[in-house]
């Protein structure tokens, strides 16, 4: 799986509408690189390793030195001191927070549950406006400094991309149409939960934004996506307006972006927010547990649609809390609230 954090429709808008030819050039080059990565997407099932519980992180940060090479020159390994390069040290720290989250909350040992080494490459390409998981490691661009800041800065970007790896090793949701939108949504869910856990924010205190701080000064926007209010994250003449729907009434039928995986993910995103808000407290404890157990439990198909996933989460909640529990009602009502009838 090769999944980028910035959706193609944002960069396509820059190519067509930005006044600055340099920004158009950067967006065009980023799209070309991202498209090449997607064309290499792994389609064979991933062999599931046997879970282990030694829970020792193994982090390596490589520096691509603005070339398009992976993994780059190793500049920081597990246990080594900070380098003084903010980008390198952010990447190292956020790998650690993500590892700690999955260990502490779900007793999962790294991405594959078996202690998979966590590798990140920073300073990838020149002004590369994206970050991605390529099936084996994280890769970060530095951003152009005009529309996008460095991609290592927001913790939820790292959490989002690494969770594509978790999905790869568990449900294996196909990256097209509704299953692809679920793949993107699951990454948003756990990217947000990792940030909430790190900050100690309960559901009512969380911002529910993905990529807050990634948009540069002067951009009219607050993040890449809003799980609480899909469609409100940005509205900028160079990036366009956030197209995410929050209800099935507004579902977008398209062949672009693998069937709108970064667009229609707003619907299950809002369902998770509604369930978390209704349950209250720390979202990773109950709503997060329902989504995690659904993702990893083996009951959903690789081509699952919204209705099937909703039904699976309701079944999981019922198994965890009981059919008449407030938590189960919250999950049912959350899906109904976005027009998904399970």
Class inferred from helices and paired strands: alpha+beta
Number of helices: 10
Gross morphology? globular
Assembly status: single chain
> What is the C-alpha radius of gyration, as a whole number of Å?
19 Å
The H-and-E topology, N to C, reads as EHHEEHEEEHHEEEEHHHHH
Q: Poorly predicted ranges (pLDDT <50, ≥5 residues)?
A: 39-45
Number of strands: 10
| Gap from first CA to last CA | 28 Å
- In round numbers, the mean pLDDT is 95
Helix percentage range: 40-55%
Strand order in space, largest sheet = 1-5-6-4-2-3
**Which band does the percent of strand residues land in?**
5-15%
Describe, in plain words, how this protein is organized in 3D.
By secondary structure, the chain is an alpha+beta fold. The protein has ten helices and ten strands. The protein has a six-stranded mixed β-sheet, sandwiched between helices. A hairpin with a 4-residue loop joins strand 5 (131-133) and strand 6 (138-140). The protein has helices spanning 8-17, 21-39, 86-106, 155-169, 177-199, 257-260, 266-279, 287-296, 306-321, 326-337, and strands at residues 3-4, 59-63, 73-77, 118-122, 131-133, 138-140, 209-210, 225-226, 235-236, 240-241.
Write a short abstract of this structure.
With 342 residues, the protein is α+β, with helices and mostly antiparallel strands.
């Amino acid at each position: 799986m090769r999944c980028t954090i910035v959706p193609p429709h944002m960069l396509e808008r820059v190519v067509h509408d930005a006044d600055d030819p340099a920004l158009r050039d950067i967006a065009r080059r980023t799209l070309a690189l991202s498209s090449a990565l997607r064309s290499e997407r792994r389609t064979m099932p991933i062999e599931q390793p046997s879970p282990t519980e030694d829970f020792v992180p193994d982090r390596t940060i490589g520096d691509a030195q603005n070339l398009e090479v992976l993994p780059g020159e190793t500049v920081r390994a597990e246990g080594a001191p900070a380098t003084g390069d903010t980008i390198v040290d952010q990447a190292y720290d956020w790998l650690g927070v993500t590892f700690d989250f999955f260990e502490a909350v779900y007793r999962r040992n790294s991405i594959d549950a078996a202690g998979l080494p966590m590798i990140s490459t920073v300073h990838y390409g020149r002004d590369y406006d994206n970050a991605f998981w390529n099936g084996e490691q994280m890769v970060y661009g530095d951003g152009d400094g005009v529309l996008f800041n460095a991609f290592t800065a927001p913790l939820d970007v790292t959490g989002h991309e690494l969770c594509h790896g978790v999905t790869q090793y568990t449900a294996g949701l196909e990256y097209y149409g509704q299953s692809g939108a679920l793949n993107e949504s699951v990454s948003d869910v756990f990217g947000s939960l990792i940030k909430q856990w790190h900050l100690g924010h309960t559901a009512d205190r969380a911002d529910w934004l993905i990529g807050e701080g990634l948009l540069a000064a002067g951009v009219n926007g607050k993040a890449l996506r809003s799980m609480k209010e899909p469609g409100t994250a940005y509205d900028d003449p160079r990036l366009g307006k956030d197209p995410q729907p929050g209800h099935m009434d507004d579902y977008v039928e398209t062949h672009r972006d693998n069937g709108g995986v970064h667009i229609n993910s707003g619907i299950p995103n809002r369902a998770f927010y509604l369930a978390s808000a209704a349950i209250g407290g720390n979202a990773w404890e109950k709503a997060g547990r329902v989504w995690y157990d659904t993702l990893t439990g083996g009951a959903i198909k690789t081509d699952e649609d919204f209705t099937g996933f909703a039904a699976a989460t309701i079944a999981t909640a019922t198994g965890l809390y009981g059919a008449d529990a407030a938590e189960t009602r919250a999950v049912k009502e959350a899906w109904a609230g976005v027009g998904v009838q399970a």
